[in-house]
Design a protein that fits this description.
The structure is a homodimer. By secondary structure, chain A is an alpha/beta fold. Chain A folds into two domains: 1-101 and 285-357, Isopropylmalate Dehydrogenase, CATH 3.40.718.10; 129-257, 3-Layer(aba) Sandwich (Isopropylmalate Dehydrogenase). Chain A has twelve helices and 14 strands. In chain A, the strands form three sheets. In chain A, strands 2-1-3-12-11-4-5-10-8-9 form a ten-stranded mixed beta sheet, sandwiched between helices. Chain A has a two-stranded antiparallel ribbon with strand order 6-7. Chains A and B meet through strand 7, helix 7, helix 8 and helix 9 of A and strand 7, helix 7, helix 8 and helix 9 of B. The complex binds 3-isopropylmalic acid (2 copies). One 3-isopropylmalic acid sits between chains A (89, 92-93, 248) and B (194-195, 224). Chains A, B: It catalyses: (2R,3S)-3-isopropylmalate + NAD(+) = 4-methyl-2-oxopentanoate + CO2 + NADH. Chains A, B: Catalyzes the oxidation of 3-carboxy-2-hydroxy-4-methylpentanoate (3-isopropylmalate) to 3-carboxy-4-methyl-2-oxopentanoate. The product decarboxylates to 4-methyl-2 oxopentanoate. Chains A, B: This is 3-isopropylmalate dehydrogenase. Chains A, B: Its cofactor is Mg(2+); Mn(2+).
């Protein structure tokens, strides 16, 4: 039976970069006889425009039925002033939560061809290859109660709740350890256990899970120190596992160390093989519609999808190799361009990957 | 009437670096006729050893009575395994909270003499001079309820609460705007308003306060983006104002951009002129007692104290100039040493600043 892929191009540069990623996926589909069937829908601002909400029930049903989801990016100034309850991000948070996509994998990988793009000194980042495993469906993002109210003295106040249960921590810790097993067997768990009750439980449960992984060298680091160490000596890390909020912050910091966030894909996985795949970068409304956005992070998200949801290692490797080949050819979109390289647009970049594949 | 300074050397390298800072303070006292009187007490692990708690009531009373407090650093492996309720950090959090030291100023300044120490490319950080204004007595650090419990199904769970009231946000926003007024008139408020209720109130109140500061160019940034932008182009920032948790993370990240956290002082201010002054770095237990720690951040904390709590601008300037002079002389402790400079210990560095002053 053919596999169902739901494609959600989203907002801003989303549709442009997705068009290129789909070309690459279609070619891989033929070449490796993957038997994929694609269908399309909207998420984020585009869904607000079409359905009145950032994630329509019918879209969610389609996402549930699909074997994997490819997402472009969501959000843009057009929807900045609408009712917060239906802002584009709400659709993203809802699909993550409703599909139980708790395991967010965010690699920060420095492509040797793009070593100069980093704002860090070459010796600090050369060969950088970190994987951040972020808990994606719990913590302060979804904690209840959360409220905004007026106190008796007339003052406004608002609060959020940061909850974690043992089982939520255990399952994301396992993802961290499993990833470390197939990489360099080093896992760093990041928390703020010197201040937060939730972090104390986090640390205790990670220690318990560690017993099942005697081969893994486990360390713990406070989030403030982790934010420093990523700048000071990022190569000390292999896999980092952390909660939703800290993972949001640290994964963005880590991705920027590479200087080429336009190259970084991500995966959000449920307890089975199902996953949503998307570039790490945002919807970049400032350059949307100009045909200059970098489609490579989305193309590499296709490769991640083949690897994690469908175990199609050969096809995944081939796409990564094709991306590396176009970089070797000196082709660059504006965001990663440097002196001596050939500047190309979104479509030309997609075509080059297709040709290399 | 003479001014009372309470000195809390703390743990690890605390006593060593404080000894040098006190030498500098005593000299400034004489030279500028400051009429300061110093007294000493313990905080953190040293207080646990002496009083059984990380902040004794009598110490807190002394701190309340003092006009300013100089702190070394707290914490160390010796107290890592004691009852979490009396860990060294608890003393630090308690003194901040009890004295109402809500306004935490953390400069990230790159000394031209130490430009090489940064892990970032020189052109990215040359001339870097950011001030992070962190809310220090509210938010998730102190929010109630916080609890660790066992659910009916036998599973453990724990949670923290992140509350902010209008008045808490307003007073720290004012500090941010006031600092921006005497600097480059640019303030960036960092939150996570696309996810958190507390951040939505934060942003709304900052906007209200902005009306009183028409000269200030205010921007808002999500915390994940701020963590990226600090790496990508830190010089885009002048003053950053943010909440307790985000400020903890971003100020450490920002200080590491300079590559010389051993140089960075900080101030924690209440609603009046009272403040606690301490280096940004920690207690560095690994090098404690060896006489090699860098005392300059603590010496510069003295200068911050003179400036913010006592308005002794000439004395503050003189100390900063003396520090700059010893750097010009090529003197360096191990943490900031580079080829061609003279490596000195803690005491020799303190003596050199005294001589320069
Ligand atoms: C858009 C936003 C809600 C989202 C998040 O905070 O998770 C984004 O920053 C991300 O990291 O995917
Ligand atoms: C020691 C710890 C509780 C403290 C904090 O998180 O505030 C420290 O990291 C700091 O930034 O002063």
């Amino acid at each position: 039976m053919s596999k169902q892929i739901l494609v959600l191009p989203g907002d801003g540069i989303g549709p442009e970069i997705m068009a290129e990623a789909v070309k690459v996926l279609q070619l891989a589909n033929d070449k490796f006889q993957l038997d994929f069937e694609l269908s399309y829908d909207e998420l984020g601002g585009a869904a607000v425009d079409k359905y009145g909400v950032p994630l329509a029930d019918e879209t969610l049903a389609r996402a549930r039925a699909a074997d994997a989801i490819l997402l472009g990016a969501v959000g843009g100034p057009k929807w900045d002033t609408i009712d917060p309850a239906i802002r584009p991000e709400r659709g993203l948070l809802k699909i993550r939560s409703q599909l139980g996509l708790f395991g967010n994998l965010r690699p920060a990988l420095l492509y040797p061809q793009l070593a100069d793009a980093s704002s860090l000194k070459p010796e600090i980042v050369a060969g950088l290859d970190i994987l951040i495993v972020r808990e994606l469906t719990g913590g302060i993002y979804f904690g209840k109660p959360r409220e905004s109210k007026v106190l008796e003295n007339g003052e406004r106040m608002a609060y959020d709740t940061l909850p974690y249960s043992e089982s939520e921590i255990r399952r994301i810790a396992k993802v961290g350890f499993d990833m470390a097993m197939v990489r360099n067997k080093k896992l760093c768990s990041v928390d703020k256990a010197n201040v937060l009750a939730s972090s104390q439980l986090w640390r205790a449960v990670v220690e318990e899970v560690a017993k099942d992984y005697p081969e893994i060298e486990l360390s713990h680091m406070y989030v403030d120190n982790a934010a420093m160490q990523l700048v000071r000596a990022p190569k000390q890390f292999d896999v980092i596992v952390t909660d939703n909020m800290f993972g949001d912050i640290l994964s963005d910091e880590a991705s920027m160390l590479t200087g080429s966030i336009g190259m970084l894909p991500s995966a959000s996985l449920d307890a089975g093989n199902k996953g949503m795949y998307e570039p790490c970068h945002g919807s970049a409304p400032d350059i949307a519609g100009q045909g200059i956005a970098n489609p490579l992070a989305t193309i590499l998200s296709v490769s991640m999808m083949l690897r994690y949801s469908f175990n199609q290692v050969a096809a995944a490797d081939a796409i990564e190799q094709a991306v590396s080949d176009v970089l070797d050819q000196g082709l660059r979109t504006g965001d990663i361009w440097s002196e001596g390289c050939t500047k190309v647009g979104t479509q030309a970049m997609g075509d080059a990957v297709v040709a290399a594949l």
